[in-house]
Amino acid sequence: MSDITTGKLLANGVADAVGFVGGALLGFWAGQWLGVDIFAPGYGTGSLIGIALVGLGGGLGLHAARRWQTRRQDKTAGKE
Q1: How many domains are there within the chain?
Q2: 27 is in which domain, residue-wise?
């Protein structure tokens, strides 16, 4: 594997991780704003809604990061 390929893979992995964690945090904060606590004892309705918001936020963040990566790669491919 060349250094260029390794660098691209590392950049993609870091971007995916940042997108997922950022989205999950936004989902967590949205849940806090709505008054649901994912860390409440038991698995009540509020906890499950909070967990779903974190999962949804993480998925949307990952999707946004991958779209950004694709747009960035398309722009650099057009310049070459």
Answers
A1: 1
A2: 14-47
